[in-house]
Amino acid sequence: MRYMLLLKYDEAAQAETPPDPAMFEEMAAFNTAMVDAGVLLAGEGLLPSAKGAVVAFDGEEPTVTDGPFAEAKELVGGFWILKVDSLQDAVSWARRAPFRAGERIEVRKVAEAEDFEGIAPPEVMEAEEELRARQAQQQG
Fold this sequence. Notes:
Blueprint: E1 2-9, H1 11-16, H2 21-36, E2 40-45, E3 53-56, E4 63-66, E5 75-83, H3 87-95, E6 104-109, H4 122-139
Antiparallel strand pairs: 1-5, 1-6, 2-5, 3-4
C-alpha cells in the first residue's frame, strides 16, 4: 500500500524563525533511513506559498490567485510517498520526522485502482490502467 505523508505548518509563524541548520542534517538522516528501509517512493519539500498560486473552481471558469496564501492558516510544506504494509507503519515513519512544535504530518492512503472497482465504469478502469502503463514506460 502507498501512503502520503503531508507536512503541514503555519507558514507565517515559520517565516519568523528559519530552520536551524541542524534540521537539514536531521532531515537527510530521516530520508536516508526511509531509503535504506526500502519504503520511500518519493519526497519533496515545497517552497513558500509566495512562489505559488491557487486555482479555484468556483464558477464557470477557474480563477487563479497568486501567492502568498495569507488566508490559509495551515499549508502543505512538503510530502513523502511511502510503500508500507499498513497505516500503522506509515504513522510509525511519520512519528520519526524531525519537526518543530506547530508542524504536523497528515498521513493519507493513496487510492489504488482496486479502491474504485465496482464504482467506476469498467472502461474508465481499463483506460486508467493503460495510462499508468504508459506513464511507467515513459519513466522507465
